[in-house]
Amino acid sequence: MIIRRGALTDHYVEDDRSVVMVDESVLGLSPIATAILEAVPEGTRVTLRAVTKHVVDTFGPPEGPESAEDLTR
Q1: What is the pLDDT of residue 73?
Q2: Closest Cα partner for 52 from 29, 30, 36, 34?
């Protein structure tokens, strides 16, 4: 699966959280959502595997029965 990010009107990052403005809407993003946004630069297409790898590299593997290797296949 290929992911492409839509255009942002504005984007502000502080520590591990960010705020984005899309058209006239302002959204506060969690640390994981911020990492996903960072993994998909504007104007590029990225695979879901690459985004998942970036999130796992940033936060570590999730707890539970699935391994990080399963998530990045």
Answers
A1: 61
A2: 36
